[in-house]
Amino acid sequence: MASSVAATDRAALVKAFDESRAGVRGLVESGVSAVPEIFRHPDPYASIPLAPPGVSIPVVDLSLPSPLAAADAARDWGFFYVVNYHDHFDCDDDYPGRLLAAARAFNELPAHERAAHYGRTTSTDGMFRWRETIDVAFWPSSSPSPPEDAKLTIPACCRAEVLEWDALATAVARAVMALLCEGLGIGAGALEEASCLEGRVMVCQYYPVCPEPERTMGIVPHTDPGVLTVLAQDGIGGLQVKHTTVDGESYWVDAKPVPGALLINVGDLLQMMSNDKYKSVEHRVVMNSHEEARVSSGVFFNPGKRGVSDFYGPLPELISSENPPKYRSFAMSEFLGTFFKRDLASKALIENFKI
Ligand SMILES: O=C(O)CCC(=O)C(=O)O
Ligand SMILES: [Fe+2]
């Protein structure tokens, strides 16, 4: 009986929260001093320890001739910063700051102006996160750039910056994919030819200030499902990456904000396509205790070709009797079906395709 009453209370809380269409920011604006029940995690910061001082995520300097730096980082860490890319891609020095400022401005509009874009994402465990997520753009995978009607769904106050960000993130992903292909010893264009730049999803995340940061999380530990993620974050911090050393010791490493840098991470699909050479690693966002909300934006790259005869799995060029496939091949429809059914829990997705 008690649990059905609790379930009813919870349903009422969820309904009230959704109907407000004001999101977590609306709660903060209304002056909540405690994290409401639906956002509370049983033990958000249990599990493995924080990294010892001096351990940090590798940096790949795109202005230097170090062709294997990205591949080494993708193998050992699954995460790396890219720096000094502005000249390489002929982009303004204020990137990604200009995008992040525009995304912040959107999130800080009065609630009634944001409401049209309100959308709440919960994972299959039903837990709510202390964040706002706007899917700022999602367009048919067959189209190389957003069609005009998709552009109009992007909030007007950040539309220009979002479109610039899409173009920059795609150029960076193209260059990084080429480096990662070279690291696999295959043609630099192999991932692009497999349509991995085409199926893009962009999100802007806004993590409001939290009155009880120890009770909830921005994002629980997860791996990204796609091929590659290109992420921009502002100066607040909160993203942590799980790193396991060669001795098998694991800890959370802060992805400290580096001005102007972008973060790249390997997703589950790339781990499988590379037959485990590159690793998709868990990451999470802890609540900040700053006085200002945190803003980040990720572009998730996925294969765009999704026909019945388009199969993914270890790249055939990599497979030999010394390197037999560790995963079976699958169509994107099966992959996505499994993705939407799974828990956000670590590595659950990839296990389904192991041979
Ligand atoms: O906000 C961040 O820094 C990371 C977000 C993230 O991991 C995701 O959206 O998958
Ligand atoms: Fe992620």
UniProtKB/TrEMBL annotation:
Give any GO molecular function from the UniProt entry.
Answer: dioxygenase activity
Keyword terms of this UniProt record? Iron, Metal-binding, Oxidoreductase
* InterPro entries, alphabetized: IPNS-like_FE2OG_OXY (IPR044861), IPNS-like_sf (IPR027443), Oxoglu/Fe-dep_dioxygenase_dom (IPR005123)
Q: Which domain of life is it from?
A: Eukaryota
- Domain (Fe2OG dioxygenase) spans 192-303
Q: Spell out the family assignment given in the record's similarity comment.
A: Belongs to the iron/ascorbate-dependent oxidoreductase family.
Its recorded name reads Fe2OG dioxygenase domain-containing protein
Native organism: Leersia perrieri
Question: What lineage does the source organism belong to?
Answer: Eukaryota, Viridiplantae, Streptophyta, Embryophyta, Tracheophyta
